[in-house]
Amino acid sequence: MKKYLLASTLIILLTVSGCSFLQGLSGSVQYPEVSYSDMKFESLSFDGVTMNFTFDVDNPNRVDLRAQGYEYAFSVDGNEFLSGTNDTGIELKSRSSSSITVPIRFGFNELYNSVSAITTRDSIAYGISSVFSFDIPVLGRRDIPASASGYLPVPKIPRLSLENISVGNLSFTGAEVNVQLKFDNPNTFAVGFSDINYILAVDGERWAAAGIAQQVNLAPKSSQIVTIPVRLDIARLGTSVYRMLSGQQSFQYNVTGDGSINVDLPYFDDSSRIPFDLSGRYSF
After folding, report:
1. What is the CATH number assigned to the segment(s) 30-153?
2. CA distance 178 to 184
3. Contact 251, 282 (CB under 8 A)
4. CA 36, 41, 42: angle at the middle one, nearest 5?
5. 157-168 pLDDT, tens digit each
6. Given this model, what pLDDT does residue 168 score?
7. What's the pLDDT tens digit per position in 24-70?
8. CA distance 79 to 73
9. Rounded to an integer, what distance in angstroms lies between the CA atom of residue 36 and that of residue 34?
10. How far apart (Å, rounded) are the C-alpha atoms in residues 242 and 220?
11. CA-CA distance, 165 to 282, in Å (whole number)?
12. What is the reported pLDDT for 12?
């Protein structure tokens, strides 16, 4: 009987002390703190953007914690545009800080289709709302929110148009033609063109194919006209060309080509070439 009473007493004491221990541990365990650190562009181009949002995580506890993952919602002008989740776990050492990066990627055509009004704007307001999930001893799973906001530049492809075609010396054997192309930069940052190649065709027949050695530098919100001199051999091209250039008939023109573009932004990806294709009807 005494042994039974002693065993029961020990069980009660262990239970009470265990509960007290858990209550004490629960009271000493703190939620981790999550705060927005910064946003860096991984890439930005005329096609799309990749933004990396970094959030700092602080574990003030004497025990290790585990981040189970996160979910996010990315908004443009206050309207949700993208959302997603990431279930990759991250171990957080006791009394230490770490960081979690949330990447956001999208194409500008995708954005234009969702928010058509931004096509005429230089920048847009964005916001990101994230919820980070943690496995906390005693307390279990807990969700910690964090958010950030800012402005994103909306790059627009520079425009190219045919400004004018003028005739210099004209004879039955040859002609000098000046083709004027207008480069227009609609952006709030400077843009440069180089290594421009073009093909000029009239009524379906190639008149000239060459390159432009001139570097075209466009200040923000500016335009520039570049004159391309073209020498034509009318004896080879035929009398119809003479009639066109002398103003006796209009013609269908087509100017195609491409050029390398340089953008005055440190994080802009300008490694690609920008194509152009101009066509229409012209009369002297």
Report:
1. 2.60.40.10
2. 19
3. yes
4. 115
5. 899 888 888 887
6. 77
7. 444 578 889 999 999 999 999 999 999 999 999 999 999 998 889 99
8. 10
9. 7
10. 41
11. 8
12. 43
φ and ψ of 183, to 5 deg: -100, 130
CB 87 within 8 A of CB 69: yes
Identity at 41, one-letter amino acid code: F
Q: Domain ranges for the chain, please list them.
A: 30-153, 159-282
**Length of the chain as a residue count:** 284
Distance of CA 233 to the CA centre of its chain: 46
Domain with residues 159-282, CATH architecture: Sandwich (2.60)
C-alpha 41: how far from chain center: 8
Residue 114 has pLDDT above 90, yes or no: no
The two structure tokens encoding residue 257? 């080509």
Neighbours of 57 (CB within 10 A): 22
How crowded is residue 256: how many other Cβ atoms within 10 Å of its Cβ? 15
Cβ–Cβ contacts within 10 Å for residue 14, how many?
Answer: 10
Residue 128: count of CB within 10 angstroms of its CB: 21
Cα angle: 47, vertex 39, 148; to 5 degrees: 110
Check residues 148 and 251 and name the one with the higher pLDDT: 148
- Asked if residues 230 and 209 have their Cβ atoms less than 8 Å apart, the reply is no
Average pLDDT estimate for 236-244: 67
Q: Give 17's pLDDT tier (boundaries 50, 70, 90).
A: very low
Q: What phi and psi values does residue 16 have, to the nearest 5 degrees?
A: -65, -45
Residue 36 structure tokens: 């927005």
212 contacts 196 by C-beta, under 8 angstroms: yes
- Measured in whole angstroms, the distance separating CA 163 from the mean position of its chain's CA atoms is 31
Cβ atoms within 10 Å, residue 95: 12
Could you give the CA distance from residue 163 to residue 69 in angstroms, rounded to a whole number? Answer: 56
